[in-house]
Structure formats: C-alpha cells, structure tokens
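dude i think i finally got it to work??
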Amino acid sequence: MPLSSMKRRASRQIILGGIPIGGEAPVVVQSMTNTPTKDVVATVNQIKRLTYAGCEIVRVAVPDMESATALKEIKAQISLPIIADIHFDYRLAVAAIENGAEGLRLNPGNIGGRRKVKEVVSAARYRTVPIRIGVNAGSLSRSILKTYGHPTPEAMVESAIGLIGMLEDFDFRLIKVSLKSSNVSHTVEAYRILGEKLDYPFHLGVTEAGSLISGTVKNTLGIGMLLAEGIGDTVRVSLTCDPVEEVRVAYEILRALGLRQRGVEIISCPTCGRCQIDLFSLAEEVQHALSSITTPIKVALMGCAVNGPGEAREADIGIAGGQGYGTLFKKGKVVRKVAEHDLARVLIDEVRRMVN
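look at this
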C-alpha cells in the first residue's frame, strides 16, 4: 500500500491565519525564525526567505513586550501567518494577539496560574486564535517528574492532557498539540499514546535535534515514522542552522512519503569507480539552479551505463553519463547525446522549459 493512501488519524480541523490544519487538510510545513523578533528588518527578511522556500506558517519568539509590539509592523510586510512563542508572562500572549499573531505556542502551566490563563484564552477566543500546547521533555513539571522519575513518553502525555484540560475548563478547543523530545523513540511513542486518547491536531517535531546532518536524520526518523502511521497534521523540522534548511528537509520528508510534492526531486547516484563524468559538480550546479522551481518534477543525474539509463527513463527528465558525454532522456525516451561541458546548461534549460 502506498504510504500516501494509508489511513490517517482522524483529527478535528482548526484554521490558523486562513490555513486549515487537521482533518483532511494536507500536512502543513512550519519553521521558526532565529532573529530577534524586535529586529523587524532582520525578521521580515528571514520570513520572506522562508516564504520563498515554501514555509506556510512561521513561529517567532516573543520574550518581551518590545517583541510583542513588533509583530504589528512585521505582519504588515509579510504574507505568512505568525505564531507567537510565549513563556512565563501571560501579558506577552495577550499583546501578541492584539498585534496580529494568528496563533500562540505556550505552556499554560508556566504563565502564572488559572486566572492569567483565562485572560489569554479570552483574547484568543475573541480573535479566533488557536493555541498550541507545547509539551517539551526538558521542561516537564516537578510533580510529573517525581511521579515518573524521568521524562518518559507517559509523562509527556500526562502533562499534555493536564494542560489541555486547563483550556477545556474555559470551553476553549481551538487547540493543537506537540510532544517533543530530543529522544526520537520517546517522541514517537508519546504521539502514539496521545493519539489514542484525543482528536486534536498534532504538530510534529523532534526538539533539539542537532545540526544539519544529525538533525535531519533524527527528524526524518521521528516525523517520518509518525506520518507513515497516519499521525501528524503539521510539522517543523528543528535544525541548528539556517531555518530555510528546515523547510527543505520537511518537504523532502513529505515527498518521500508521497504526502506532498513541491519543486525539483533530484535522483542522483552516489558514484563509484564506473562513473565517467564529474557528477558531484553537475548535481550541485543543477540543484542550485533549479531551487526556485515549485512545480513537482523528477530529475535524474546518473553517472554510468549500469543503472543510469533505467533510472533516467523513469524520471521526467534525466541524463546518464558516459565518457565525456551524457545521454539526455525525457519522459522515458532518448533525446540526444550532450557533451559533458554542456550537460548542466542543457539540462537546466530543458527543465525550465518543461515547467513553464
């Protein structure tokens, strides 16, 4: 059975800044800025880069009132919905909503008690702003840690249920939930357990996953396993690098599972002693030149005549290398031979013609 046709966990749908999350909606790609939010110019520039990369919702840190009030100016210059990330001070959540935040990420347990949570809920209800309950294994309450001893999946689930109950007590149900840990297996198990208990939409991620390579591996395993089981409505790949890379990795995960298709999919061999062209340079040049394309298209870059022709024929367009030349394939048919020094230019031009 194709992964994309597997039964998806039934979740209620919420709307965040006009974007549906949950239900039958496509899995939504999110990221988070790493600029100081009060630096409006830097934050706007980064959000525009994220938008260009395909980010659909962006989260920003709101550690102080200056950051909360900056949201109004930021919102005037961008097209993406903004989620305000709030900790410790309920007034920042209220101010963020007043200044245009379409969503909140908070832990109701650390913003000052039920009365203050009620004020945030009232502001969110008035403007139809969803709240994400963000449970992180590294910040569980002392009472829960005393019960479980460690930040286990069961501890994370109990924390989430308690925090959700706090919002439900105020008859607020515009909720989505995340259960994040740097431990992949704990993250996956926590979502599985909670998915059996309630139907709020899930935001997937593996927190503090690491740099580009190690972080990509952890996120791909954690997010990928859950999505393959039909669990998850929106994702954020956490990486210690440019957040644009988070968006790119997210789309690659979704593409590999057959859930979303966006942009150019490069199929290239790892090379071996049979390779007779400079495939490393070719792949890098083609990837960079075609990075702005959003139309789904499969491009094969193969280094020799063993598997190359077969893989190239299965792609929308591709080349199979030979000594000093490459054979250009399009929709499974041989088009012509191209000299090696012209391969990148010819392939890039042909792809651009196909998508325009």
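The domain at 264-355 is CATH 3.30.413.10 (Sulfite Reductase Hemoprotein; domain 1).
im so relieved honestly
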